C-alpha cells in the first residue's frame, strides 16, 4: 500500500527528473546543475542585494576630510571632529531633514580656524537641518553664516577672534537656534560690525530690495561677551517672531560704533526678549528702532535683569524704546517684572506695564 504523502513525493520527483541532464544518473543534481559547479554558461550570477544605506558616523581628522564630509553627508549622519586645528573656510552644502538632521560635532579642542580675520566665512551653511555641536570656531572675517537655511542648531560652540560678526542667519533663514554657546572677541576687523548674534539683513542689504524674512530665529542661554564690539544680539528690520531668552551679556569692550551700543537691538517685529541678564553696556541695555516702515514693533521685554553700569553713557537707559509712535496699535512693551539697573537717564523711555504670563 502506498501512502498518499509518498505518492505526492514520487510524482514531484518524477516531474523534476523529466528535466534532468545526463549527469543525473551519475550522481549529479537532479535539477540540471551539478551541486559543485557554477550556473550554466550564459546565465548571470544572482546579484547580492546592496546593504541598506542609513545614517553613519564619520570621524574626520584633517581639513580635507572635513571639506569632503560637508559635501557628502546624508540625512542623519554624524561627522565627528577629532581634536586638532582645521585651517580654512568650510561650506556645508548637504541637507539633512527635520527628523534626520546632519550633526557636526566635536570638543572645544576641535578648532575650525579661518586663517585670518580679513576675509571669508569660516563656516558657511547653504543647506538646512544641521546641528553644530561643541567645537570652536575662530579667526575668520565671519564666524558662522547661514544663508537661506532652516532648522539649524548651533549648540555649545565657542566662537571668537572674529573680524566682524560671530553667528549670522540671513536671506530667508528661518527657525534656527543658537544656544548654550560662548561668543566673545568679535569686531577685530571692523568694530562697528562686531555683533555676537545677528538675525536678518539691514535694509540696505535686503535681497532684491525686499525684506529679508529671516523669521522665528532664536538665541537661548548663550554667554555673549566680553569684547563683542557691536550689539550682543542684533535683530534686523524685516524679521518677525523670534525669541532671545536666558542669555548673559558682558558689555566690556563694546565700542558704540555703528549703533553697537546695547545688549539687544530689536528692529524686527514681535520678538520675545526675556530672562536675559547683563553687566555693562556702552549706552543702553535694550533698545528698539524703526529702520524700515512697519518694523521695530510689537516686541515684548520681560523678566530681564542686570545693570548697564559701569560702562553706560550718561544719556542711556536700561530700556531705550523710542519708536512706539511709529508702531500704532502694535507697540513695544516693557513689562514691570524687569529688574535692570537704570542708565544715566533712567530705567525706560516708556512706562513699564503688567504683563500676563
Q: What's a concise summary of this model?
A:
Residues 201-258, 338-357 are annotated as: Disordered. With 357 residues, the protein is mainly β. It has helices at 4-17, 63-72; strands spanning 57-60, 78-81, 84-87, 90-92, 102-106, 110-113, 121-125, 130-133, 136-140, 142-147, 153-155, 158-162, 167-170, 177-179, 182-184, 197-199, 218-220, 223-224, 233-235, 243-245, 248-250, 262-266, 272-274, 277-279, 284-288, 300-302, 305-307, 319-321, 333-334, 339-341.
What would you note in describing this structure?
The chain is mainly β. It has one domain (57-341): Pectate Lyase C-like (3 Solenoid), CATH 2.160.20. Helices cover 7% and strands 31% of the residues. The chain is built from two helices and 30 strands. It has helices at residues 4-17, 63-72, and strands at 57-60, 78-81, 84-87, 90-92, 102-106, 110-113, 121-125, 130-133, 136-140, 142-147, 153-155, 158-162, 167-170, 177-179, 182-184, 197-199, 218-220, 223-224, 233-235, 243-245, 248-250, 262-266, 272-274, 277-279, 284-288, 300-302, 305-307, 319-321, 333-334, 339-341. The strands form three sheets. It has an eleven-stranded parallel β-sheet, with helices on one face. Strand 1, helix 2 and strand 2 (78-81) form a beta-alpha-beta unit. It is elongated, with a radius of gyration of 31 Å. Mean pLDDT is 89; it is low at 1-40. InterPro entries: Pectin_lyas_fold, Pectin_lyase_fold/virulence.
